[in-house]
Design brief:
By secondary structure, the protein is of the alpha+beta class. Helices cover 44% and strands 11% of the residues. The protein has 2 domains: 81 residues, His-Me finger endonuclease fold; 119 residues, no CATH class. The model has no long low-confidence stretch (mean pLDDT 92).
Length: 220
């Protein structure tokens, strides 16, 4: 999850149905074309579903309330509503600071996995959010296990490209190759951009490689 600005677009008219082209395009702009939970991008905004952040069962008016509509992939949307606990809101809460994001090798699972930790174990919303993100990325039971595995594989492919770029950066600096250095810096900035998939996990990797120390304005 990353922080987003819901005021960056003029609220569209939702109408009788919350799912229409104007609403989807506006949500894609707000959430940078990514699922607000797992940060995966889709080639077409129409593939996304629209999550009602607050359940509509007790308040039907929330079904077409603009501020209650969030861009979400099908898997995350389905899984989130199996356990409708209150979670952090990336439009209001500083999810980049309240959650600790990590990515690395887990010897017990013999694979690379994303890890999400709470900065305050007494904060129920943070803890609920961390648990949800852990389940979305790392669950191992039921049919949704295949989706989680696919998500991890997609994250790992992007992580591998970032790691290669970090190595290329070191080589370019060592060799004094200014052209390669510029190209590599451009690649790294793209991998950790707010507009790119899995921003927070990629930024953790960039910090581990100490790229943020070499490039002061690395994170937009």
């Amino acid at each position: 999850m990353i922080n987003v600005d819901r005021h960056c677009v003029e609220p569209p008219k939702v109408g009788k149905s919350h799912r229409n082209k104007k609403v989807l395009n506006a949500l894609a702009h707000v959430f940078l074309g990514k699922c607000y939970l797992c940060e995966e991008k889709q080639p077409c905004v129409g593939i996304f579903e629209i999550d009602h952040f607050k359940p509509t069962s007790k308040n039907p008016k929330l079904d077409t309330e603009w501020n209650n509509l969030y861009l979400c992939c099908k898997s995350c949307n389905s899984f989130k509503h199996k356990d409708a606990k209150e979670i952090l809101d990336p439009c209001c809460d500083n999810v980049e600071k309240l959650i600790i994001y990590k990515y690395g090798y887990n010897p017990e699972k013999d694979s690379y996995i994303p890890v999400f930790l709470s900065t305050d174990l007494n904060n129920e919303k943070i803890n609920n959010t961390v648990k949800l993100l852990e389940n979305l990325h790392n669950r191992e039971q039921g049919m949704s296990n295949y989706r989680a595995k696919s998500l991890r594989e997609t994250i790992h492919k992007r992580w591998s490209l970032l790691m290669e770029a970090c190595r290329n950066l070191d080589n370019a600096e060592r060799d004094g190759d200014d052209l390669a250095l510029q190209e590599t810096l451009r690649d790294i900035k793209n991998y950790v951009s707010r507009n790119s998939p899995f921003t927070m996990l990629m930024r953790y990797t960039a910090k581990q490689c100490r790229v943020d120390k070499k490039i002061p304005d690395l994170f937009d």
